Amino acid sequence: MNFTIDTITVPPASVRHFRLPAVALPSGAGVEIPVTVVHGAEPGPVLLVTGATHGIELVGTRALLSLVSALDPRTLAGTVISVPVTNPLAFDQSSYGSPQDGMHMGLPCYWPASPEGSATRRLGAALRPLFDAATHYIDLHNNVEPAVPMSMRFEDSCSSESVRQQQRLMADSFGFTSVRMTEPDDDTAQMVGRMDGHPAAAASAHGKPGLMVELVDTRGYLGHDLGVAGVRNVMSALGMLTDPVTPQDAHRLDGDFTFHGLLAASASGIAMPVREPGALLEKGEEVVHIVDMTGAIVDTVRMPITGFAWAYLASPHQRNGTMAVNGGHALAFVAKLEA
Ligand SMILES: [Zn+2]
Q1: What's the pTM?
Q2: Per-residue confidence at 223, pLDDT binned at 50, 70, 90?
Q3: Which SUPFAM superfamilies is this protein grouped with (predicted)?
Protein backbone atom coordinates (compact mmCIF):
# COMPACT_ATOMS: atom_id res chain seq x y z
CA MET A 1 0.00 0.00 0.00
CA ASN A 2 1.15 3.54 -0.69
CA PHE A 3 2.05 5.79 2.22
CA THR A 4 0.37 9.19 1.98
CA ILE A 5 0.81 12.51 3.81
CA ASP A 6 -1.14 15.40 2.36
CA THR A 7 -0.32 15.46 -1.33
CA ILE A 8 2.79 13.30 -0.96
CA THR A 9 2.48 9.66 -1.96
CA VAL A 10 5.24 7.12 -1.40
CA PRO A 11 4.89 3.68 -3.05
CA PRO A 12 5.96 0.54 -1.15
CA ALA A 13 9.70 -0.25 -1.08
CA SER A 14 10.74 3.28 -1.99
CA VAL A 15 12.30 6.47 -0.59
CA ARG A 16 10.99 9.97 -1.11
CA HIS A 17 12.63 13.27 -0.14
CA PHE A 18 10.38 16.33 0.01
CA ARG A 19 10.05 19.69 1.75
CA LEU A 20 7.08 20.84 3.80
CA PRO A 21 6.16 24.52 3.28
CA ALA A 22 5.97 26.03 6.77
CA VAL A 23 6.60 29.76 7.21
CA ALA A 24 6.80 32.84 4.97
CA LEU A 25 9.52 35.34 5.94
CA PRO A 26 8.88 39.11 5.65
CA SER A 27 10.68 39.23 2.30
CA GLY A 28 8.34 36.59 1.00
CA ALA A 29 10.95 33.85 1.10
CA GLY A 30 9.43 30.55 2.10
CA VAL A 31 10.88 28.39 4.86
CA GLU A 32 10.47 24.68 4.27
CA ILE A 33 11.15 21.66 6.48
CA PRO A 34 13.13 18.83 4.84
CA VAL A 35 11.55 15.38 5.21
CA THR A 36 12.52 11.90 4.02
CA VAL A 37 10.08 9.00 4.03
CA VAL A 38 11.45 5.46 3.74
CA HIS A 39 8.43 3.28 3.08
CA GLY A 40 9.02 -0.44 3.48
CA ALA A 41 7.89 -3.33 1.33
CA GLU A 42 5.89 -4.79 4.22
CA PRO A 43 3.39 -3.05 6.52
CA GLY A 44 4.47 -2.15 10.05
CA PRO A 45 4.91 0.72 12.51
CA VAL A 46 5.37 4.30 11.34
CA LEU A 47 8.38 5.70 13.19
CA LEU A 48 8.82 9.48 13.15
CA VAL A 49 12.32 10.67 14.13
CA THR A 50 13.22 14.34 14.51
CA GLY A 51 16.63 16.02 14.74
CA ALA A 52 17.55 19.65 15.49
CA THR A 53 14.34 20.27 17.43
CA HIS A 54 16.75 22.69 19.08
CA GLY A 55 18.58 24.42 16.23
CA ILE A 56 22.11 24.02 17.61
CA GLU A 57 21.78 20.28 18.31
CA LEU A 58 23.09 18.75 15.11
CA VAL A 59 24.15 15.29 16.26
CA GLY A 60 20.66 13.95 15.62
CA THR A 61 20.67 15.61 12.20
CA ARG A 62 23.82 13.78 11.22
CA ALA A 63 22.45 10.53 12.72
CA LEU A 64 19.28 10.81 10.63
CA LEU A 65 21.17 11.52 7.41
CA SER A 66 23.32 8.42 8.03
CA LEU A 67 20.38 6.27 9.11
CA VAL A 68 18.23 7.05 6.11
CA SER A 69 20.96 6.66 3.50
CA ALA A 70 21.74 3.17 4.82
CA LEU A 71 18.14 1.92 5.03
CA ASP A 72 16.93 -0.44 2.34
CA PRO A 73 13.15 -0.04 1.93
CA ARG A 74 12.95 -3.50 0.33
CA THR A 75 13.89 -5.13 3.63
CA LEU A 76 11.95 -2.73 5.87
CA ALA A 77 8.60 -3.45 7.52
CA GLY A 78 6.73 -0.22 8.13
CA THR A 79 7.81 3.34 7.50
CA VAL A 80 10.45 5.76 8.77
CA ILE A 81 9.68 9.48 8.59
CA SER A 82 12.94 11.39 9.06
CA VAL A 83 13.00 15.13 9.83
CA PRO A 84 16.70 16.02 10.09
CA VAL A 85 16.03 19.72 10.72
CA THR A 86 12.85 20.21 12.71
CA ASN A 87 13.36 23.94 13.31
CA PRO A 88 15.01 25.45 10.20
CA LEU A 89 14.44 28.98 11.58
CA ALA A 90 16.75 28.17 14.48
CA PHE A 91 19.10 25.84 12.58
CA ASP A 92 19.84 28.40 9.86
CA GLN A 93 20.81 30.97 12.51
CA SER A 94 22.79 28.54 14.73
CA SER A 95 20.29 29.32 17.44
CA TYR A 96 18.61 27.14 20.07
CA GLY A 97 15.15 28.57 19.32
CA SER A 98 13.61 30.68 16.58
CA PRO A 99 14.85 34.31 16.44
CA GLN A 100 11.46 35.34 15.03
CA ASP A 101 9.48 34.73 18.22
CA GLY A 102 12.03 33.61 20.83
CA MET A 103 10.30 30.24 21.11
CA HIS A 104 12.02 26.86 20.96
CA MET A 105 10.43 23.63 19.82
CA GLY A 106 10.76 21.84 23.15
CA LEU A 107 7.69 23.89 24.08
CA PRO A 108 4.17 22.83 23.08
CA CYS A 109 3.83 23.46 19.34
CA TYR A 110 2.26 20.26 17.95
CA TRP A 111 -0.80 19.98 20.22
CA PRO A 112 -2.68 22.14 19.62
CA ALA A 113 -1.39 22.87 16.12
CA SER A 114 -1.58 26.62 15.45
CA PRO A 115 -1.23 27.39 11.72
CA GLU A 116 -2.16 31.02 12.47
CA GLY A 117 0.28 31.31 15.39
CA SER A 118 3.80 32.76 15.63
CA ALA A 119 6.59 31.45 13.39
CA THR A 120 7.56 28.52 15.63
CA ARG A 121 3.94 27.48 16.11
CA ARG A 122 3.53 27.49 12.34
CA LEU A 123 6.47 25.09 12.06
CA GLY A 124 4.71 22.86 14.57
CA ALA A 125 1.47 23.04 12.61
CA ALA A 126 3.30 22.14 9.37
CA LEU A 127 4.84 19.09 11.09
CA ARG A 128 1.68 17.96 12.83
CA PRO A 129 0.47 15.72 9.93
CA LEU A 130 3.69 13.71 10.37
CA PHE A 131 2.79 13.13 14.02
CA ASP A 132 -0.74 12.17 13.03
CA ALA A 133 0.65 9.59 10.61
CA ALA A 134 3.16 8.18 13.13
CA THR A 135 2.67 5.27 15.52
CA HIS A 136 5.97 5.87 17.38
CA TYR A 137 8.22 8.87 17.88
CA ILE A 138 11.88 9.55 18.73
CA ASP A 139 13.23 13.09 19.27
CA LEU A 140 17.05 13.27 18.98
CA HIS A 141 18.71 16.04 21.01
CA ASN A 142 22.25 16.46 22.28
CA ASN A 143 24.15 17.92 25.17
CA VAL A 144 27.61 19.40 24.77
CA GLU A 145 30.60 17.60 26.36
CA PRO A 146 31.21 16.81 29.17
CA ALA A 147 28.13 14.61 28.97
CA VAL A 148 27.03 11.01 28.49
CA PRO A 149 24.24 9.86 26.20
CA MET A 150 20.92 9.04 27.89
CA SER A 151 17.24 8.85 27.10
CA MET A 152 14.17 10.33 28.74
CA ARG A 153 10.92 8.51 29.45
CA PHE A 154 7.89 10.71 30.01
CA GLU A 155 5.87 7.97 31.68
CA ASP A 156 3.62 10.36 33.54
CA SER A 157 2.42 11.75 30.20
CA CYS A 158 1.46 8.42 28.64
CA SER A 159 -2.17 8.13 27.60
CA SER A 160 -2.36 4.41 28.44
CA GLU A 161 -0.48 1.51 29.94
CA SER A 162 0.25 0.15 26.46
CA VAL A 163 1.80 3.49 25.43
CA ARG A 164 3.91 3.35 28.61
CA GLN A 165 5.04 -0.19 27.82
CA GLN A 166 5.98 0.75 24.25
CA GLN A 167 7.88 3.79 25.53
CA ARG A 168 9.79 1.54 27.95
CA LEU A 169 10.55 -0.93 25.14
CA MET A 170 11.90 1.92 23.01
CA ALA A 171 14.09 3.23 25.86
CA ASP A 172 15.44 -0.22 26.73
CA SER A 173 16.19 -1.14 23.12
CA PHE A 174 17.73 2.25 22.22
CA GLY A 175 20.41 1.19 24.69
CA PHE A 176 21.31 4.15 26.90
CA THR A 177 20.59 4.65 30.58
CA SER A 178 17.03 5.93 30.60
CA VAL A 179 15.64 8.37 33.13
CA ARG A 180 11.99 8.74 34.10
CA MET A 181 11.30 12.44 33.81
CA THR A 182 9.26 13.93 36.64
CA GLU A 183 9.19 17.30 38.31
CA PRO A 184 11.82 17.38 41.11
CA ASP A 185 10.07 16.76 44.42
CA ASP A 186 12.35 18.60 46.82
CA ASP A 187 14.41 21.79 46.93
CA THR A 188 17.87 20.22 46.57
CA ALA A 189 17.82 20.86 42.83
CA GLN A 190 16.42 23.34 40.33
CA MET A 191 13.53 22.60 38.03
CA VAL A 192 13.87 22.80 34.25
CA GLY A 193 10.32 23.82 33.53
CA ARG A 194 7.27 21.76 32.76
CA MET A 195 7.78 18.31 31.37
CA ASP A 196 4.59 17.96 29.38
CA GLY A 197 5.61 20.42 26.66
CA HIS A 198 8.48 18.25 25.41
CA PRO A 199 7.47 16.79 22.04
CA ALA A 200 8.08 13.20 23.22
CA ALA A 201 5.84 13.81 26.25
CA ALA A 202 3.12 15.47 24.18
CA ALA A 203 3.20 12.62 21.64
CA SER A 204 2.94 10.09 24.47
CA ALA A 205 -0.06 11.96 25.83
CA HIS A 206 -1.70 11.62 22.42
CA GLY A 207 -1.25 7.87 22.06
CA LYS A 208 2.11 7.90 20.23
CA PRO A 209 4.85 6.39 22.43
CA GLY A 210 7.61 9.00 22.41
CA LEU A 211 11.24 8.87 23.50
CA MET A 212 13.57 11.85 23.89
CA VAL A 213 17.24 11.02 23.47
CA GLU A 214 20.24 13.14 24.46
CA LEU A 215 23.29 12.32 22.35
CA VAL A 216 26.63 14.04 22.96
CA ASP A 217 28.04 16.82 20.82
CA THR A 218 31.70 16.41 19.91
CA ARG A 219 31.67 19.42 17.53
CA GLY A 220 32.27 17.03 14.65
CA TYR A 221 29.03 15.25 15.64
CA LEU A 222 30.98 12.02 16.09
CA GLY A 223 28.40 10.88 18.63
CA HIS A 224 25.96 10.31 15.79
CA ASP A 225 26.80 6.63 15.36
CA LEU A 226 25.30 5.87 18.78
CA GLY A 227 22.13 7.59 17.60
CA VAL A 228 22.00 5.53 14.40
CA ALA A 229 22.54 2.30 16.36
CA GLY A 230 19.89 3.31 18.89
CA VAL A 231 17.21 4.11 16.32
CA ARG A 232 17.99 0.87 14.47
CA ASN A 233 17.66 -1.01 17.77
CA VAL A 234 14.23 0.52 18.34
CA MET A 235 13.25 -0.45 14.79
CA SER A 236 14.38 -4.02 15.48
CA ALA A 237 12.43 -4.12 18.76
CA LEU A 238 9.32 -2.91 16.90
CA GLY A 239 9.74 -5.57 14.19
CA MET A 240 10.68 -3.12 11.43
CA LEU A 241 14.14 -4.63 10.89
CA THR A 242 15.21 -8.25 11.19
CA ASP A 243 18.60 -7.38 12.78
CA PRO A 244 18.88 -8.26 16.46
CA VAL A 245 18.90 -5.49 19.08
CA THR A 246 22.58 -4.93 19.89
CA PRO A 247 23.58 -3.58 23.32
CA GLN A 248 25.21 -0.16 23.34
CA ASP A 249 28.11 -0.23 25.79
CA ALA A 250 28.04 3.53 26.20
CA HIS A 251 27.52 4.35 29.84
CA ARG A 252 24.54 2.20 30.59
CA LEU A 253 23.96 2.02 34.33
CA ASP A 254 22.01 -0.69 36.11
CA GLY A 255 18.91 0.29 38.02
CA ASP A 256 15.92 2.59 37.64
CA PHE A 257 16.56 6.32 37.52
CA THR A 258 14.29 9.31 38.04
CA PHE A 259 15.08 12.91 37.15
CA HIS A 260 16.15 14.89 40.20
CA GLY A 261 16.73 18.32 38.64
CA LEU A 262 19.60 20.69 38.01
CA LEU A 263 22.40 21.26 40.50
CA ALA A 264 23.41 24.89 40.92
CA ALA A 265 26.53 26.72 42.12
CA SER A 266 26.17 29.18 44.98
CA ALA A 267 29.32 31.15 44.02
CA SER A 268 30.47 32.61 40.70
CA GLY A 269 33.65 31.41 38.98
CA ILE A 270 34.73 28.62 36.67
CA ALA A 271 32.90 25.32 37.06
CA MET A 272 35.27 22.36 37.16
CA PRO A 273 33.61 18.95 37.20
CA VAL A 274 35.54 16.59 39.45
CA ARG A 275 33.83 13.38 38.34
CA GLU A 276 33.17 11.95 34.91
CA PRO A 277 29.61 12.39 33.66
CA GLY A 278 27.73 9.11 33.89
CA ALA A 279 29.60 7.83 36.99
CA LEU A 280 27.36 6.48 39.74
CA LEU A 281 27.87 8.82 42.71
CA GLU A 282 26.86 8.42 46.32
CA LYS A 283 24.85 11.06 48.11
CA GLY A 284 27.28 13.69 49.45
CA GLU A 285 30.05 13.02 46.90
CA GLU A 286 31.67 16.06 45.31
CA VAL A 287 30.51 16.74 41.76
CA VAL A 288 31.75 20.20 40.75
CA HIS A 289 34.19 22.73 42.18
CA ILE A 290 33.70 26.44 41.54
CA VAL A 291 37.12 28.06 41.34
CA ASP A 292 37.81 31.79 41.54
CA MET A 293 40.55 33.69 39.72
CA THR A 294 43.08 33.06 42.52
CA GLY A 295 42.56 29.31 42.00
CA ALA A 296 40.72 28.94 45.29
CA ILE A 297 37.74 26.61 45.51
CA VAL A 298 34.91 28.94 46.49
CA ASP A 299 32.10 26.41 46.27
CA THR A 300 31.88 22.63 46.31
CA VAL A 301 28.73 21.18 44.79
CA ARG A 302 27.80 17.75 46.15
CA MET A 303 25.31 15.12 45.07
CA PRO A 304 22.05 15.62 46.99
CA ILE A 305 21.07 12.04 46.22
CA THR A 306 22.72 8.82 44.99
CA GLY A 307 22.62 8.82 41.23
CA PHE A 308 24.50 10.28 38.29
CA ALA A 309 25.07 13.52 36.42
CA TRP A 310 24.50 13.12 32.67
CA ALA A 311 25.70 16.52 31.54
CA TYR A 312 27.69 19.43 32.90
CA LEU A 313 26.32 22.63 31.47
CA ALA A 314 27.91 25.44 29.62
CA SER A 315 26.69 28.87 30.59
CA PRO A 316 23.92 29.42 29.73
CA HIS A 317 23.01 25.84 28.85
CA GLN A 318 20.92 26.74 25.81
CA ARG A 319 23.94 28.11 23.95
CA ASN A 320 27.41 26.92 23.15
CA GLY A 321 28.88 28.80 26.11
CA THR A 322 31.78 28.21 28.46
CA MET A 323 31.97 26.85 32.00
CA ALA A 324 32.27 30.36 33.46
CA VAL A 325 29.17 30.54 35.64
CA ASN A 326 27.32 32.97 37.82
CA GLY A 327 26.27 31.95 41.30
CA GLY A 328 22.85 30.34 41.12
CA HIS A 329 23.50 29.05 37.63
CA ALA A 330 22.61 25.48 36.76
CA LEU A 331 25.63 23.17 36.51
CA ALA A 332 24.53 19.61 36.01
CA PHE A 333 21.51 17.48 35.14
CA VAL A 334 21.21 14.74 37.74
CA ALA A 335 19.16 11.58 38.03
CA LYS A 336 18.39 9.67 41.22
CA LEU A 337 18.86 5.91 41.60
CA GLU A 338 15.61 4.43 42.84
CA ALA A 339 16.05 1.96 45.70
ZN1 LIG B 1 17.58 19.91 22.98
Answers
A1: 0.96
A2: confident
A3: Zn-dependent exopeptidases
